[in-house]
Design goal:
Length: 520
């Protein structure tokens, strides 16, 4: 291994490579951690804080509203009830990571540590691909690998563990001690503590190693050792989750289970959102259309160029290429089984671990372009990638803007100082941000929820209540001139609280209507 490995010659190219390599360290300034406490991110913060407050003995959510809603019917963050506990669907292991950092570094420490892990992931991948600037450029600038890895710490940690274990395997020499392969398999399996779907990637890798390399005695021993380490790691994970949650795949699987087993032809909406786009989000290939070309080339390449039934094919293929093949095969398997949260933000964190494989397959595509059309095909491919570079830039800008917007909502909470916060959509519990544990908050979606909640919790115990009502079309269209006119949700609130409560403040924003009611 040497830098730049003969692939970077000019000083400008070296500078560009170093910039790409160190870019994760810039992201805590582009997407400030303190502005990322909303939606799922707030839920992960709540889980981490709960683990810490429980003395690292339980993931039972510590909610200020627990005495008002002991059964968790109106939990302001996503939660699953198991026995007497309210459990977050987010990985318990991630909660422990948050709990370690929060007391001494706050939320900044979590994201700073994640950024460092992404940088180390870049190091592993750069070594594996001989410091190829094209590989790193495609992965960093034309895919969501960096931004999703940083923005979602569970994704960043899972990819670091999977790539770290893969690096141990792929960089081994002929005389490497067998325990190293056992450790590699175990580390790869450990990524499933943070993203359960990551189990599919080592399985696919073992499958391809067995097809192409099993006839080689030395490789066979490596495969057995890696498989054993992976099996130990998976059994440990599934066993602990079964004991804790009553299901070997944990709470997130239970949360997504209703849609995971739908027949494929009934999941077209999920597939289209996951891979292309839906009205609000860009999917995997919507983010990087060049990877769709890569996928088609992979199908051709694996069946016609590197078929395991082709004579001498096994002697021509490297373990690194098998790692690439397995990553794209795992991608296909995950797409078929995509749950409801397959429809998520740009690029899809659900398919995140396949991104290094797609970038690697892109290089194989470049190497296999015929001499006659090499120049024009490369120009077309790079032009398509420029679109993805623009999307990467826009994605970061959008996330930064939304983070700043939520910070302004936090300020409204501090100004109003309510005794209770009621949100109509869970996402808007972001108004509390890092102050979540100071004031009870409940999720009252419909008019019947308002009636039921305040029938069990007398309004007189509250001096001031802050409400956050969504203006989304799922409920009703509000009158812009007077948003409280013919507002069924507000009418239900007034009826449930009674005449003792009067509206003392309101603000009509683009997507929400905020108002405070105070007891006379």
């Amino acid at each position: 291994m040497s830098f730049p490995g003969g692939k970077i010659h000019s000083k400008w190219a070296k500078f560009t490579f170093c910039f790409l390599f160190l870019l994760p360290l810039l992201y805590p300034f582009l997407l400030k951690p303190g502005e990322q406490l909303y939606s799922d991110h707030l839920g992960k913060f709540i889980l981490g804080e709960s683990v810490g407050r429980n003395g690292f003995l339980s993931g039972n959510l510590v909610l200020p509203s627990r005495n008002l809603d002991p059964e968790g019917n109106y939990c302001p963050t996503e939660c699953i009830r198991i026995g007497e506990e309210l459990i977050s669907p987010f990985p318990a292991a991630l909660g422990y990571v948050y709990a370690i950092f929060l007391p001494w570094s706050g939320i900044v420490g979590v994201y700073a540590a994640t950024a460092i892990l992404i940088l180390l992931s870049f190091l592993f991948l750069s070594i594996l691909w001989d410091w190829d600037p094209i590989y790193l450029g495609v992965l960093v600038l034309a895919s969501p690998f960096l931004v999703n890895g940083y923005f979602f710490p569970d994704v960043g940690i899972a990819s670091f563990l999977f790539l770290g274990g893969s690096f141990l395997f792929l960089r081994s020499g002929p005389s490497t001690f067998r325990l190293r392969f056992v450790l590699a398999g175990f580390i790869c399996a450990s990524s499933a503590w943070f993203r359960i779907e990551s189990i599919v990637f080592p399985l696919a890798f073992i499958f391809f190693l067995s097809i192409y390399k099993f006839s080689n005695v030395e490789e066979k021993n490596k495969i057995f050792a890696y498989s054993f380490g992976f099996l130990v790691g998976v059994v440990l994970l599934l066993g602990i989750q079964y004991v804790l949650y009553g299901h070997p795949l944990g709470p997130r699987f239970s949360f997504n289970q209703p849609t995971m087993f739908l027949l494929p032809w009934k999941k077209w909406k999920i597939y289209s959102g996951l891979l292309i786009a839906n009205p609000n989000r860009i999917g995997f290939f919507g983010y990087t259309p060049g990877f769709l070309i890569v996928l088609f080339f992979f199908v051709y390449y694996i069946f016609f160029n590197k078929s395991p039934f082709k004579r001498n094919a096994t002697s021509e293929i490297s373990n690194r290429d098998l790692f690439v093949f397995s990553g794209i095969t795992a991608f296909l398997a995950l797409v078929v089984s995509a749950p409801n949260d397959g429809i998520i933000d740009f690029g899809s964190r659900y398919l995140h671990l396949s991104l290094p494989a797609f970038a690697g397959m892109f290089l194989i595509l470049l190497e296999n372009i015929g001499e006659k059309f090499r120049r024009i095909v490369k120009i077309v491919l790079y032009a398509i990638l420029l679109y993805s570079v623009y999307i990467s830039y826009s994605y970061t800008q959008i996330l930064g803007k939304y983070g700043r917007k939520t910070t302004k909502l936090n300020a409204i909470y501090l100004e109003q100082k309510p005794d209770l916060v009621v949100v109509q959509i869970r996402t808007y519990s972001q108004i509390l941000g890092k102050y979540f544990f100071q004031t009870p908050s409940v999720w009252l979606m419909r008019e019947v929820d308002i009636k039921n909640f305040f029938s069990k919790n007398h309004p007189k115990q509250f001096k001031k209540i802050l409400f956050v009502q969504t203006k989304a079309s799922i409920m009703e269209s509000l009158n812009d001139a007077d948003p409280f006119l013919r507002n069924k949700y507000y009418a239900s609130i007034s009826q449930a609280l009674g005449p003792d409560f009067i509206k003392v403040w309101s603000e009509n924003k683009e997507d929400v209507l905020l108002f405070s009611l105070e007891r006379k």
